[in-house]
Amino acid sequence: VIAARTPAATIQAARQALQRAISCVTSVVVSTQADTAETKLNCTGRLPRLSGGEAISLNIRHTFVLVHDASREARYRWLARTTGYLYALEAADGREILAYHWHPGGRSPVTTPHLHLGAAAGTLRRELEKAHLATGFVTPVALLTLLIEQFAVRPRRGDWAAVLDRAHRALDITTEEQR
Amino acid sequence: MATQPEKVAAPYREISREEAWALLDAATHRYLGISVDEFARRYNAGEYDDPDDDPVIMQLAFDLEFLQRNETATP
After folding, report:
1. What is the ipTM, given to two decimal places?
2. Is the Cβ of A37 closer than 8 Å to some Cβ of chain B?
3. H-helix or E-strand spanning residue A172
4. Per residue in B16-67, pLDDT tens?
5. Contact status, residue A53 vs residue A159, Cβ threshold 8 Å
């Protein structure tokens, strides 16, 4: 859970948590759109692979709102609550390989967290082409870990596992850590 | 395979609402050949049955919805 003393500090903490996690695989900078009640973090970057295979791209969108909880300790009273995400992995030609989605407030009738297998995932059964495969709530760490462990993306830091573990605990809204 | 631990600077980029709208306009032109205003009109009219059926539409829709639902919000 991301929490801080002020709204600005909470936004900064959320941005830094994502930036640190992203730094495990790329130097791209997270952009922040925080001029409203809700904040959107964005980042897109091409990732070279250890195997020398074709580069793949990471495409992350993560939104959250600030929530004030007067029952918490003063320095943790403002919390960042995730409101939606798209975490996608794309092939060099721009086609999607896979994407974790949660968009509960949008027009899509699918409002629970799910996974898409995209056109660049390989040959799929027809039933899976547009399937929304149910997942629990995930953080970008699910995708970042997959990149390192399965897609041969070179980690940019030796402590990547610890960094990703911390980022997951910070961005996970399924556990309400008491402080 | 693993690299040495490194300090990570915390650079970031703030995007204004106007910049976000312009970026979305560039994206709708690039992927759909239409302006963001036209995309918003079609989207709000329900012309995209389930936006989540198409990864490009879904990404554009996610950004549009964010802008629209915060249109009148106060910081």
Report:
1. 0.90
2. yes
3. none
4. 999 999 999 999 999 999 999 999 999 999 999 889 999 999 999 999 999 9
5. no
At B34-44, the pLDDT tens digits run 999 999 999 99
Predicted model pTM = 0.90
The three-state secondary structure class of A83 is strand
AA identity, residue B73: A
Of A166, A164, A158, A141, nearest to B6 by C-alpha is A158
Q: CA-CA distance, A49 to A55, in Å (whole number)?
A: 6
Please enumerate in sequence order all residues whose Cβ is within 8 A of that of A68, keeping only pairs 6 or more positions apart, or say none: A77, A78, A79
Share of chain A above pLDDT 70, in %: 96
Count of other CB atoms within 10 angstroms of residue A162: 12
Query: Among residues A89, A62, A9, which one has the least CA distance to residue B66?
Result: A62
Q: Which residue has the tokens 């631990």?
A: B5
Contact criterion met (CB < 8 Å) for B73 and A38:
yes
The whole-angstrom separation of Cα A97 and Cα A168 is: 22
Q: Which single residue is written with the structure tokens 């306009």? A: B25
Q: Would you call A133 an interface residue with chain B, using a CB distance cutoff of 8 Å?
A: no
Give the A:B interface size as CB pairs under 8 Å.
Answer: 113
Helix-, strand-, coil-residue percentages of chain A, each rounded to 5: 25, 30, 40
